[in-house]
Amino acid sequence: MTDLATTAATRWGLGHARLQFVAGRENQVFRVCDASGEYALRLKRPGYRTRIEIESELQWMAALDQAGILVPRPVPSLKGQLLEQVDGHLVDLLTWMPGQTLGTLLTACSEANAQVLFQHLGRHMALFHAASDAWVKPDGFSRVAWDAEGLLGEAPLWGRFWEHPALSAEDKALLVDFRTRAAQDLRQRDGGLDRGLIHADLVRENVLVSEGRMGMLDFDDGGWGYRVFDLATTLLKFLDVATFGKLKDALLRGYLSVRTIDTDALDLFLALRAVTYVGWIVPRLGEEDAPERSRRYLATARRACLHYLRGGVADHRPPGLSA
User: Which of 71, 95, 119 is the last residue in one of the domains?
Assistant: First the structure.
């Protein structure tokens, strides 16, 4: 794959740059360094996204950059293209964003500082949503939809979570019941929920603090959806933290300082987000750490769904989810 990355880098005139592999899941990502700067070269996983979806993602990121939102900026190739194809792989190049992830910062900060970070994140999330609304989408713009069908339909974006092979009869019945109830709830709430472009994966590893500014990484799963889904995605992995309530309040306080959102739907969307991970892990069960991750995802989904179905009476702090 490194040889492919070196070949791809020539499309941007970076054939002699230093390449370092940094991540590999949906994309193979290489850090590219030369005298002109530092970049992230991404080799897209074949079949994960269509060409038009990736081009739309890059157009969206470029528009966010223009609007003052801190995101990696797409870099045109020597041919002026944001997306190139090399040996069957779609490839793009982004500016490298220095800084520390939210996850790294939270490991060494006080409770008070953690709340400050969450308040800043809530504010920046709202600004990101506002900028996405203000942007006039180009003809042909296409991204996935985290709508009722994408979350609870016959073919959810991250898989049929109620068919996970490790489900006990009790857990399967719970997830089937949740799917039915959640679909009814979404239909009733639909008109009052804020919808538009969302990041859909604002976990702590995808939030970066750089020179005092807060930015967002990894728009692979971004698309159309409910704005509260972004809030739920951030909060889900902190449900087992003793200060979860304070972190949630700080995040919402920051968001509401910029724009309104229906916070009454948060328990529903925490459960919706939890079950997506149950579906996501199924095709990855053969990976080395997948069985343990699958157990955690199932435990979190079980408790989040029970909390929602019981109207918030039960303890809603399930074990955390590690990426």
Answer: 95
Q: Does 77 map to a domain?
A: yes
State pLDDT tens for residues 289-321: 999 999 999 999 999 999 999 986 444 343 344
Handedness of CA 216, 222, 224, 230 (dihedral sign): negative
Is 320 inside a domain boundary?
no
Query: What does the pLDDT look like over 77-106, one tens digit per residue?
Result: 999 999 999 998 999 999 999 999 999 999
Question: What tens digit of pLDDT does each residue of 210-255 get?
Answer: 888 999 999 999 999 999 999 999 999 999 899 999 999 999 999 9
pTM above 0.90, yes or no: yes
Query: What's the domain range around 25?
Result: 2-95
* Helix %, strand %, coil % of the chain (to 5): 50, 15, 35
**Burial letters 281-302, b for 16+ CB under 10 A, else e:** bbeeeeeeeeeebbebbbbbbb
H/E stretch holding 209 reads: strand 207-210
Cα 287 to Cα 192: distance, rounded to the nearest angstrom: 40
16 and 78 in a single domain? The answer is yes
Are residues 153 and 286 located together in one domain of the fold?
yes
40 and 158 inside one domain: no
